[in-house]
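Good morning,

Attaching, inline, the backbone tokens for the sequence recovery test we're adding to the shared suite. The designed sequence is right after.
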């Protein structure tokens, strides 16, 4: 067992109609697959005050009490319930404590999160609270980091994150996504790399080497929040790319090896993954953590990081 920890909200499920497209299965599946590889803890509940650093207080109040319209629920994509709100708090809380772990030992893991479609005052695309924006704001406000980079490699653009951090010069939003995929009205990230349908391993990894990693290095972050969406895989219900499991794993290895070489703490979140083969979704999410552990297993602490 390593000294690293992962956090999960898997114990906090919520009611869904039969046949709903949300992949609830994957959270417990990833926990089971990683149980013998890393310590796994229940994700703590995010404090509402932290959410208010990026979200409108009235928006949060209405969702907390269920005072939301049918249109708002439709845009969110999940039926309202006290349990779905609790789950969102746990998923975001997992990103915050994983960030604190990363700042202490280089590598933090949330087995959920990456809810990048949440805006200040509206929910979209299974995203009620924007966990990475919340974590970035907290790190900057507390002085735990001077420059935070959000590396969003989900197949869908991180539109909510881009909007929430648009005026924060100390944060850099980088999104690699399907140019013709949801959301169909894109926001403006600090760097948007929209790729065509059908992108293969070689084409995607070429973009990583030629554009993504140089952009990360140029910003010189002292914290990276990584959305390791596996909806880039061929066969995903909501993705249009054609990566293999090996390609997605090589993508994450590049990210982790670069951050380790630069001595930049990194937090990985699961983000999207909706493959027609559920076992592949689970394997891909688990592989992200497994390759991270391979890269960081010999690292116990980083020099000159703040105590948090």
């Amino acid at each position: 067992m390593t000294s690293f920890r992962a956090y999960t909200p898997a114990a906090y499920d919520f009611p869904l109609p039969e046949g709903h497209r949300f992949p609830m299965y994957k959270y417990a599946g990833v926990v089971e697959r990683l149980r013998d590889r890393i310590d796994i803890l229940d994700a703590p509940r995010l404090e509402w005050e932290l959410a208010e650093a990026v979200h409108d207080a009235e928006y949060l109040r209405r969702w907390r009490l269920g005072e939301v319209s049918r249109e708002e629920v439709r845009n969110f994509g999940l039926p309202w319930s006290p349990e779905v709100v609790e789950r969102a708090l746990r998923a975001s809380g997992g990103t915050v404590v994983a960030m604190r772990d990363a700042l202490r030992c280089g590598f933090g893991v949330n087995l959920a999160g990456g809810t990048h479609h949440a805006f200040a005052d509206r929910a979209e695309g299974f995203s009620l609270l924007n966990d990475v924006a919340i974590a970035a704001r907290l790190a900057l406000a507390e002085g735990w980091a001077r420059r935070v980079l959000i590396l969003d490699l989900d197949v869908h653009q991180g539109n909510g994150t881009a909007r929430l951090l648009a005026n924060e010069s100390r944060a850099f939003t980088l999104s690699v996504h399907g140019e013709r995929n949801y959301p169909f009205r894109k926001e403006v990230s600090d760097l948007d790399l929209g790729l065509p349908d059908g992108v293969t391993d070689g084409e995607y990894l070429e973009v990583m080497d030629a554009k993504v990693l140089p952009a990360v290095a140029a910003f010189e972050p002292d914290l990276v929040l990584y959305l390791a969406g596996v909806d880039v895989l061929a066969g995903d219900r909501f993705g249009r790319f054609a990566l293999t499991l090996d390609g997605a794993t090589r993508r994450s290895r590049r990210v982790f090896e670069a951050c380790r070489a630069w001595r930049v703490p990194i937090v990985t979140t699961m983000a999207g993954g909706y493959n027609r083969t559920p076992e592949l979704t689970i394997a891909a999410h688990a592989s992200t953590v497994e390759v991270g552990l391979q890269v960081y297993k010999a690292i116990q602490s980083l020099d000159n990081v703040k105590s948090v």
